[in-house]
Amino acid sequence: MAVASFKLQFSYIKSQSNFRPALSKYCSRSGRIKCAATTPRKSYNITLLPGDGIGPEVISVAKNVLNLAGSLEGIEFSFNEMPVGGAALDLIGVPLPEETLTVAKQSDAVLLGAIGGYKWDKNEKHLKPETGLLQLREGLGVFANLRPATVLPQLVESSTLKKEVAEGVDLMVVRELTGGIYFGKPRGFDTNEKGQEIGYNTEVYSAFEIDRIARVAFEIARKRNGKLCSVDKANVLEASMLWRKIITALASEFPDVELSHMYVDNAAMQLVRNPKQFDTIVTNNIFGDILSDEASMITGSIGMLPSASLGSSGPGLFEPIHGSAPDIAGQDKANPLATMLSAAMLLKYGLGEENAATRIEMAVLDTLDRGFRTGDIHSFGHKLVGCKEIGEEVMKSVDSGAGYTN
Ligand SMILES: NC(=O)c1ccc[n+]([C@@H]2O[C@H](COP(=O)([O-])OP(=O)(O)OC[C@H]3O[C@@H](n4cnc5c(N)ncnc54)[C@H](O)[C@@H]3O)[C@@H](O)[C@H]2O)c1
C-alpha cells in the first residue's frame, strides 16, 4: 500500500492543529517566527531528558530524526541534555535536579525518554525516579496530557484484539496530569486505631482544574469527530461527582460536541470490547494513566504511542508513554517509534512546525510500509531490526521525503 494512503491515520494530529490557538504560547511563538522575514533560519532550544533504561537509546535515535526533519524545513535545533530520574539520582542525588528544571523551563520544548528501573525501586518515595517525573510535570505546569491511540493498518495484526475489533481504532485520551490522587493531600503512612499500619492518599479536584482540562478535551473533540466521553467514578467518589457536574455544565458551551459519561470500570471493559465507539476520552490523572496504557495495547505495542503534555504557558513536555523497559535496556531492542512520534508532536504542538512534524510521521509510516519492525511489533514476513537500525531506516525515509507532499 502506498504511504499516502496512510496519511489519514494521523488525522488525529492533523485535525487538532487548529487546537493550538487555544493555548496562547503557540500563537505567540508561531506568530513571532512568521514575522521574522529577515531571518533565514529558525532555531529552537530543546531540552533532552534521556532518563533511564531504554530512554537514552530511544532519545538518541529520535534526536537524529528531529534534527534531519528540521533541517529539511530550515530549522536549527540546539539541544541541552540534562539528567532526570535514576540517572539524576546517581549523578546528583535527587530525581529532578534544580538545574534540569530550570533548563527545561527556559527551553522551547522538552523531549523525555523514560525514567525508572529496578536499581531505585526500593528507594524512599522522595528518592524514586518516578517522583522526579511528577515534579517535572508539576514544575512545567503541564496539566493536559494528550495520548492518541491509533491502530495503523500495518500493525493491525500486532493488536491483542481480533482484527475486526482493532481495525480503524483512532482515539485520543485526554488525561488530567497535575491533580488528583497522585498529588492530593493529605497523604502518607500512619497507624490506625487498631494499631495497624496504613497508607493513604487523597483524590481531590477543584472546579477550576476540572474546567480547564474539560475545555481542552472539548476543543479536541470538536476538531475530531465531535464525540467526548468523560470517564469517572461518580457513583462512588465525591471528586468524580464534581467532575461530572462541571463537565456537564460546560457542555452547553460546546453544542457541536456530543458528551457522554461512563464509569471507569465500564470504560476499561468497553475499550477492549468495542474501542471504535470512542473518539475523545477525558478523564482524571489515575484513570487516564491506566486507560491510556490499556488503549496502547489495542494499537499493538506500547512502543508506538507518543504523548504531549501541555500547559497554558511555557514549554510542553513530549514523551513516549512507555516506561524505561529495564528488561530490554541496553540490548538495542527498544522500539523508538513512539519517541519519534513524540518528537513529531513536539514539532506540531510545541513549536507549530507542522511540515517538519509531517515529515517524521510519513517517514515512520514509510519505514513500517517497507517491512521494518522491532521485536515488540514484529510478525511473520517482516524484517526484525533493532532500535538503531529502525532509526536509520526512518532517517532514510525522512531524507527521501517518502510520502511527504507539501
Ligand atoms: N513515563 C515514564 O518514564 C514511565 C512510564 C511507565 C513506567 N515507568 C517506569 O519504567 C520502569 C518499568 O516499568 P514497566 O515495566 O511497568 O513498564 P514499561 O513500559 O517500561 O515496560 C512494559 C513492557 O513493555 C515493553 N516495552 C516498553 N517500551 C518498549 C519499547 N519502546 N520497545 C519495546 N518494548 C517496550 C517492556 O520491555 C516491558 O516488557 C518502572 O521503573 C516504571 O516506574 C516510567
TL;DR?
InterPro entries: IsoCit/isopropylmalate_DH_CS, IsoPropMal-DH-like_dom, Isopropylmalate_DH. With 406 residues, the protein is an alpha/beta fold.
Folded structure, characterized:
- It comes from Tripterygium wilfordii (Thunder God vine).
- InterPro entries: IsoCit/isopropylmalate_DH_CS, IsoPropMal-DH-like_dom, Isopropylmalate_DH.
- This protein is of the alpha/beta class and about 400 residues long.
- It has 2 domains: about 40-145 and about 305-405, Isopropylmalate Dehydrogenase, CATH 3.40.718; about 160-300, Isopropylmalate Dehydrogenase, CATH 3.40.718.10.
- About 40% of the residues lie in helices and about 15% in strands.
- The chain is built from 14 helices and 14 strands.
- The chain has helices at about 10-15, 25-35, 55-70, 85-90, 100-105, 130-140, 165, 205-225, 240-250, 265-275, 285-300, 335-350, 355-370, 385-400; strands spanning about 40-50, 75-80, 110-115, 145-150, 170-175, 190, 195-200, 225-230, 260-265, 280-285, 310, 315-320, 370-375, 385.
- The strands form 3 sheets. A 10-stranded mixed beta sheet has the order 2-1-3-12-11-4-5-10-8-9, sandwiched between helices.
- Strand 1 (about 40-50), helix 3 (about 55-70) and strand 2 form a beta-alpha-beta unit.
- Helix 3 (about 55-70) packs across helix 13, helix 3 (about 55-70) packs parallel to helix 14 and helix 10 packs parallel to helix 11 (about 285-300).
- It is globular and about 65 Å long.
- About 50% of the residues are buried.
- The model is unreliable at about 1-40 (pLDDT under 50).
- The chain binds nicotinamide-adenine-dinucleotide.
- Nicotinamide-adenine-dinucleotide (NAD) binds near residues 116, 130, 302, 326 and 334.
- Nicotinamide-adenine-dinucleotide binds near residues 54, 114, 117, 323 and 335.
